[in-house]
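Internal tracking record. Fields below are filled automatically when a chain is submitted to the structure queue. Please do not edit lines marked as system-generated. If the sequence contains nonstandard residues, flag them in the REMARKS field before resubmitting.
Queue: standard
Priority: normal
Entity type: single polypeptide chain
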Amino acid sequence: MTTEILPYEMRETTDISRFENFAVPTRKMTSSERATYDKLGYDWPRIDASAQKLVYAAMVQNKLQDFFIVVFARGLNFAYATLGEVTDPRGYAVMEEYVKGMLRQTAQINATFRDTSARKMGQILDESFPEPQTDNIFRRLLGSPKMRRYG
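SYSTEM-GENERATED OUTPUT FOLLOWS
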């Protein structure tokens, strides 16, 4: 008598492109277990693609953040270098306030761009995937409309 809950075990592999590559049956499955296992195999490409999209989006967002930091730092350096060239004390005070205001405004604009890009990426991530293609012999032979295996 087995005490295992799942009729398969997760095995280490570098190829996770197919559910069957890492979820390996450990015993004969009942018909309901087989149906569940097959459904997981059918859903795996979409689940895997969702995870890959999330990782990619995080990477892109980090690159975008790095880009904004570099651009802002260049602007900051330029602004303070230019401020250092002002020799008149009265002009320096006016220019200093102007530079501070411009830098605050630039930071707010960059934050708006960052938030907009994150929102747009979120919309893209919410888009559904096309259904995985299944090889249905009856559909090929009879030319019938696509039959859904599940759900």
